[in-house]
Amino acid sequence: MKSALLDKTAAALLAAACGSVVCGIILAFAFEGLGPRTAAASLAAGLACGTAAFLSVRAGPAQKPNAWDILLLAIFAIASLRAFLWVLYTVGDEWRVLSPYNLGDMSLHIQFIRYFASGIPFWPESPILSGAPLSYPPGADFFNSLLLLCGVPLREGLVWCGLAGAGLSAFLLWRWGGAFAIAAFLFNGGIAGFAILRSGAIQDFQSELAWKNLFLTMLVPQRGLLYALPCGLLLLRAWRDDFFGTGSGVPRPLQFALYATMPLFNVHAFLFLSLALASIFLVQPASRKTLLAFVGAAVPPATLCVWLVTGGFAASSGMRWLPGWMQGTGGAMFWIINFGAALPLLAFLFWRAARHGGPSARAFCLVSFATFAPCFLFALAPWEWDNTKLLLWAWLAAAPFLWTLVLAPMHKIPRGIFCFLLFFSGAVSLVGGLDGHHGYGLAKRSELAAAETALAGVPPETRIAIAQDYNHPVILLGRPVVCGYEGHLWSHGLPYREKMGLLKNILALGPGHQADAAKAGAGLIFLRGTPPRVIKTEPPAKASPESLPESALEP
Q: Quick one: the chain helix, strand, coil %, rounded to 5?
């Protein structure tokens, strides 16, 4: 009964988040932006969706936790509390983040949250590049914007959503593959962590590798995954139980809603879930009629969502041939150091599933293999490390079957050795990445306050020319900028080179900078300092002194 109640609660929370975001986007289109009333209506609609989901989900296959399950769930809880209670915190005049992986990402998420909450018309332009449509899955940040407009402070909203997403992820990892699946997510790695035996120092030894710790580098900084990971796991388990078992208890309309709207939160998760459905279609002939109807109905709304988050399919994919992925000149040692025993075990699993596995094992191992192979042959985004966003799903999809088909049948001694080889390095990295020596400065609160004063009265849609600092105060205030941090622009596949060239002359106040500002779409120039300088770029006749602060009227 407890497992059934938790299943209903997990589905309800995910349905509530989904309903709030979808309703909020519709209302933002209808009313040309968000406001407190539309945000409250959106959250109310989400609450109704969550209530309907709770009442409609039936008890699925029972699952009782054993000692290993309880231990791994406890470790996940401790790691989550450490990561998200300090996801954004203050020390004196400084805002800090716990993890170095979260410095650039946190700045971007804060900008999106405040940008959506400012009331800008929808579908908005990109806040990080003038003249470009928003080409990013906004779901998680949009949900925080709704909370912000309803009176939940920014930091508290980030903490609460982080803890909720982590809790749902832990529970649904357990429902998907038990303690082994939780360990696979928390402790993934190769052999880098064994360096602790030589150095005696606890640190994130995988930080410079390609296959980094998934908890530290994906769940904490990639905020869309706080929704997409538990939602994707719920769907994978539902499809496993519906098509290969006795039924999941998750109604098909709820599965449809979560699947079809997934691109609003995470395009990589949507892509993998689509591949999983294709794999089930191939392996399980009895499912084909149902799957054709399900996917056929999902195509229009899912396509609309993809169209929105890719700027009308305008975003550059960055896909290119890259055999060996991030191997470079590392050769075989790259694979040994990054993955250790994982790849040989996975290769054996794929062979065993194909030869001796049941339909469920064949379907999910097939989609896992079909994801691993192209990720090791192609770069799927401008930044090749972004392949990890798909590799994560391939690894988790295979995890339950790696246990049941390969490790569980072994004698306990070799099984223990293999588990130690799989998870020791990642465990060291997790502890090292969350220890008390961390804490990285994000911004000075006094500088943010000065910037906020300088920009008081400036309309929220005014595009501002700033230096390309990832933690610039204008970015952290949620203002749209001419050309933001280059790492964000490049990794999002945005065409920013021309604007960046113009920006240099604009910020230097060089010859013709006013014309360059007009060409770049800049309404203001913001120069950091004490106090900051805010320079208008429009001719005096077009300026509105009543709407601009005195600092904005500097010639």
A: 65, 5, 30
